[in-house]
């Protein structure tokens, strides 16, 4: 059967996280079975979807069946990926092995030609090399010297034929900002990547990891706002959200937010739900709260000042517990208007 796509695996990732949060063992087992049947593991696929991380957490599950399935799944994926790495890095080793085999074969034929002489043949059949028939040490014969030289040359040829074993690992490929197949999405992916690269983290995070995080964020935003779009296009909500995320992640006054995203403390699915106020730095939150308190004080001071009195009687409940204030509502030579509110029944009236 064909393997699951990246989007399908991301969907299973979210379903698995929800099932873990809800502590639903049956759902977890069903999702693990689907992953086992549908995932054709490659190193890029596992790294991009982060499916290995969440399945790895289930190895410590208190449910024995879930822990066993998770261990088996992770071990199977690891074996396939290790085999993939070995096949990519083993082409040079294979050539070295054939060269080594050829050198050894040449050396063996030379030694064989030397051993065809009667004296060498007799020595080889009756005594070890370097010993006389009586057991005492004897000087090396030309045949033994030739064999030693041939073996040394074969060993040297074997070392020279396998340079890949000591060569440094190749550098990782640069991020591909065209893989999404849509101009706007690719541009937004690069915006997020450039913003996350500004994170000051020790030890530094590899570009491949930052690219995977950026891809996860972009995919989460696209799934939330554009899942119903015809033809897989983007809409204005997607553009606004990506612009907001980019500006907040690049904000030089908010390095802690950028650092938390790069370290994986805030995943793409959670990041999509955050409002601009929730993404603000602690300093900005404190400033906003202080400004809100100041606005409340200003609003309260602008309200009409009232006083309590028993000088007025409510026409509805006949009580004399009232609040009142006065205001100039007509021309300056006219008396002020008195506004009265009954504190018992909330009846209101005015008079001049």
Automatic annotation (TrEMBL):
This is Transcription elongation factor. It comes from Jaminaea rosea. Residues 99-113, 132-165 have a biased composition (Low complexity). Necessary for efficient RNA polymerase II transcription elongation past template-encoded arresting sites. Pfam families: Med26, TFIIS_M, Zn_ribbon_TFIIS. The lineage of its organism: Eukaryota, Fungi, Dikarya, Basidiomycota, Ustilaginomycotina. GO terms for molecular function: RNA polymerase II complex recruiting activity; RNA polymerase II transcription regulatory region sequence-specific DNA binding; translation elongation factor activity; zinc ion binding. Residues 184-307 form the TFIIS central domain. Residues 86-179 are annotated as: Disordered.
